[in-house]
C-alpha cells in the first residue's frame, strides 16, 4: 500500500509512505483542506472517526463509549505539538502524524503502570501488509492540569520546587512498574559508552557549537564501567511531559520524536529519564533538583552524569535542526555542567 485517501467534508485524510521510508515501513497521516491542517478542528476529526469506522483495515479497540463520546464532543488543545491532541470531558485523544509498525508506547505503558500515568481508554489501529499501526489513542483526561514547564517558568515555580520530591517518588513508582511488568536486561558500561560516543559524534557533526566541549563530552562517557541495568523508560522525559493536578501525572511515552518506534521502545537505564528532568530544570533556569533525586532514591552518579551530558549534546543538535534561535539555551550552562559534574 502506498497511500489511502478519504474525503471528510471539504478536507481529505491521507495516509502515505513517509519520504525515504524503507519498504513503506513508516507512514504519515494528514487531514487537510488544501494547505490548511484540519487535525485541530473538532468537526473534521469527528468526521474522520466516523469514516474510520467504515474502513475494513481500521479497527477500534478499548471502550466503545469513549469513541462514541468523541464523535459527539471534541475540543482542540492549543500550543505547540508534534501530534494533534483533542479532548472530551473525560478523554484525551492524540492523533499521530507519523506512524510506525508495532504497539505504540502510549497504548502499552498506561496499561502496565498503576499510578501517575493517565489511564488507557481506547485506540485506533490500521493493518498494512500484515502489520498493525496505531493511528490514535485515547487516555484519561486530567482536568485543570498545568505542565511543570509552565510552572517552572512562571510566578508559580514555587509549586514545582515545593513538590519536586513528589515528582521523584512518582517517577520511581513508574519505573518500578515498568521494570516488573515489561522486559529488562543489562548492558556493559563500555558498550553503552560506545553508543553514547557515536551519538555525540553525530550531534557534533550537526551542531558545530558542540566542538569546544567534545573532549569533555567523551570523557564523561569513558567513566562508565561494569554492568548497567536496563528497562523500558519514558525516553524523552522533561518538565513539559509532567502535569500537576493535585499530584504529578507523566504523559507522552513516545520517546525522542526523531527516532523510530523500535528505538523509542529500546531498553535503557532509568538514568536517561532522570537526566531528562535535570536538563529540563536547567532549561527553565532552575537549580539542580536535588530534592527530586533524593526522593527517587539510590542512583549511580557517574551514570546519571553521563546521561545528562548525552542529553545536553542531543539538545544542542535538536535545537540546531528544529529551532536554531534556541541553540544558546542548552549551551548557556555548559561550562558549569562539566565543572560541577552535577554532584
From TrEMBL:
Residues 109-297 form the Aminoglycoside phosphotransferase domain. Its EC number is 2.7.1.175. Keywords: Kinase, Transferase. One of its GO terms (molecular function) is kinase activity. The keyword Kinase applies. SUPFAM superfamilies: Protein kinase-like (PK-like). InterPro entries: Aminoglycoside_PTrfase (IPR002575), Kinase-like_dom_sf (IPR011009). It holds the Pfam family APH. This is Maltokinase. It comes from Corynebacterium pseudopelargi.
Amino acid at each position: 500500500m502506498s497511500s489511502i485517501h478519504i474525503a471528510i467534508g471539504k478536507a481529505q485524510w491521507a495516509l502515505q509512505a513517509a519520504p525515504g521510508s524503507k519498504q513503506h515501513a513508516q507512514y504519515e497521516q494528514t487531514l487537510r483542506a488544501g494547505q490548511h491542517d484540519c487535525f485541530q478542528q473538532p468537526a473534521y476529526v469527528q468526521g474522520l472517526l466516523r469514516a474510520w469506522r467504515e474502513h475494513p483495515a481500521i479497527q477500534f479497540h478499548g471502550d466503545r463509549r469513549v469513541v462514541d463520546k468523541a464523535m459527539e464532543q471534541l475540543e482542540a488543545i492549543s500550543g505547540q505539538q508534534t501530534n494533534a491532541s483533542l479532548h472530551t470531558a473525560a478523554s484525551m485523544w492524540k492523533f499521530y502524524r507519523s506512524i510506525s509498525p508495532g504497539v505504540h508506547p502510549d497504548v502499552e505503558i498506561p496499561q502496565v503502570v498503576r499510578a501517575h500515568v493517565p489511564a488507557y481508554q481506547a485506540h485506533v489501529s490500521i493493518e498494512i501488509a500484515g502489520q498493525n499501526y496505531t493511528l490514535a489513542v485515547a487516555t484519561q483526561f486530567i482536568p485543570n492540569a498545568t505542565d511543570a514547564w509552565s510552572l517552572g517558568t512562571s510566578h508559580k515555580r514555587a509549586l514545582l520546587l515545593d513538590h519536586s520530591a513528589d515528582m521523584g517518588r512518582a517517577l520511581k513508582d513508574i519505573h518500578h512498574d515498568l521494570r516488573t511488568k515489561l522486559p529488562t536486561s543489562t548492558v556493559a558500561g563500555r558498550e553503552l559508552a560506545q553508543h553514547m560516543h557515536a551519538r555525540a559524534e553525530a550531534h557534533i557533526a550537526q551542531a558545530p557549537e558542540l566542538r569546544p566541549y567534545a573532549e569533555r563530552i567523551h570523557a564523561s562517557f569513558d567513566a562508565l564501567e561494569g554492568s548497567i541495568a536496563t528497562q523500558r523508560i519514558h525516553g524523552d522525559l522533561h518538565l513539559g511531559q509532567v502535569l500537576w493536578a493535585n499530584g504529578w501525572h507523566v504523559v507522552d511515552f513516545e520517546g525522542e520524536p526523531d527516532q523510530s518506534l523500535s528505538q523509542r521502545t529500546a531498553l535503557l537505564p532509568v538514568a536517561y529519564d532522570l537526566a531528562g528532568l535535570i536538563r529540563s530544570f536547567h532549561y527553565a533556569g532552575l537549580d539542580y533538583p536535588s530534592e527530586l533525586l533524593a526522593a527517587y532514591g539510590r542512583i549511580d552518579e557517574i551514570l546519571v552524569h553521563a546521561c545528562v551530558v548525552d542529553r545536553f549534546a542531543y539538545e544542542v543538535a535538536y535545537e540546531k535542526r528544529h529551532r536554531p534561535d534556541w541553540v544558546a539555551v542548552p549551551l548557556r550552562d555548559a561550562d558549569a555542567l562539566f565543572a560541577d559534574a552535577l554532584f
